[in-house]
Write a structure and sequence with these properties.
Length: 396
């Protein structure tokens, strides 16, 4: 386990991805995160497919404790306030106005705890013409402009995992970390507001600067063309990618690796700017060449040349990838009751040390009894984390 945020206490009242991802980032760094869920059903992401422990929920809720609370109940609300009073950080990703309706708004919680870092995550911000609109990952990608520069306009389709959700969570955790540093100087808490549209617009800062500086409207095909990045299909139908950037040495090495002297002599491709202008033609020529060998053959061939290139790995491919395994990227889940047995470790290493295990995401209401018992014993003390064996035994 990483320890950079040891002694930092977090109350997370997040659902789906943005709030839980924020809490997970802090928990991965050593913070003690108690996840507050609605009593009975919990975070809706638990039942994204079936049951109450979906793989999606497991992904963003590791290294946390969980308790189910009904904030309409006076007794449960008191438990909630006791936790907040001792916490360093509170996280929620409700639609604007919802926190106030359940007594979890900044004004209420900051009176309980003036040193509290309060993080409110929303789709479009706390106010403004869009603030009350429903929003999910795909909508945030679209309205922020990010989607327009990440898709092929001729064949538009959503790609990849929930980028806007996860990226917003990462930005939120960065803001919280900065606020904790500031609080160490001032002794004062702070409210942080971050929305998915703000996170994704900042994430797409490069195409915005292209527009402001050059007056150009970027599109989804600009970056691969300008960066000279290619995806080619090999003889066995597997995909291979390479990125030549602006350095001629990579083009020269590619020509040698593929025995492509005819391409180098073709006037359309003789200079980088010409290769940019004739990107589609060059792409077609390269696909024809790569179709003559299997991907494994090309991988072996490219290992001898200085070209930034790699097979487009599937997830199972990555699980057996030698570099991923050299980095110990896959670690066991401790305290597991059900679900996956291993996961991807946090990306950080400190002084050469990285996490060697991750605590499994909690099952529904797993730590309720121990948290309530600790608060009954001392209402003004944070419930200390019990050894995993005790928590698992209690849940079972």
């Amino acid at each position: 386990m990483l320890t950079a945020l040891n002694q930092i206490r977090v109350v997370e009242q997040g659902t789906f991805i943005t709030g839980p991802c924020t809490g997970m980032m802090l928990a991965d760094l050593g913070a003690d995160v108690i996840k507050i869920e609605s009593a009975g059903n919990g975070d809706p992401y638990r039942s994204f497919k079936t049951g109450f422990y979906s793989a999606h929920f497991q992904a963003y809720n590791r290294n946390k404790r969980a308790i189910g609370l009904d904030l309409k109940s006076e007794k449960d609300r008191e438990v909630f306030y006791q936790l907040v009073a001792q916490a360093d950080v509170y996280i929620q990703n409700f639609r604007p106005g919802a926190a106030a309706r359940i007594g979890a708004d900044y004004e209420t919680l900051s009176k309980l705890n003036p040193k509290l870092i309060y993080c409110s995550i929303s789709g479009f911000g706390p106010d403004g013409p869009y603030s009350q609109r429903p929003v999910y990952d795909s909508v945030a990608q679209a309205v922020s402009g990010f989607l327009s520069v990440s898709i092929d306009p001729e064949q538009p389709r959503f790609v990849g995992p929930a980028l806007a959700d996860a990226i917003t969570g990462i930005y939120a955790s960065l803001g919280i970390s900065a606020a904790l540093v500031e609080r160490a100087r001032t002794g004062k808490g702070k409210r942080i507001d971050i929305s998915m549209i703000e996170a994704m617009m900042h994430f797409a800062v490069e195409p915005f600067m292209g527009y402001f500086a050059l007056g150009e409207e970027p599109s989804g095909v600009d970056r691969p063309r300008l960066a000279q990045a290619f995806i080619v299909r090999c003889k066995d139908d597997n995909l291979f990618a390479f990125h030549l950037s602006s350095l001629d040495k990579f083009w020269d090495a590619l020509v040698e690796a593929i025995d492509g002297q005819a391409l180098a002599q073709d006037d359309r491709f003789s200079q980088r700017l010409k290769r940019i202008d004739n990107y589609e033609a060059l792409n077609a020529e390269l696909n024809a060449i790569f179709a003559t060998k299997t991907r494994a053959e090309w991988v072996e061939r490219f290992a001898q040349f200085d070209v930034p290139a790699a097979p487009i790995n599937t997830i199972p491919d990555v699980v057996s990838d030698p570099q991923a395994n050299h980095l110990d990227m896959f670690v066991p889940l401790t305290g597991r009751i059900e679900g996956a047995e291993r996961t991807v470790r946090p990306a950080f290493s400190f002084d050469g040390q990285h996490a060697t295990a991750v605590r499994a995401a909690p099952v529904l209401d797993q730590h309720s009894a121990e948290i309530r018992a600790a608060l009954d014993s001392d209402p003004k003390a944070w419930p200390e984390l019990k050894p995993e064996a005790e928590s698992v035994a209690a849940a079972q």
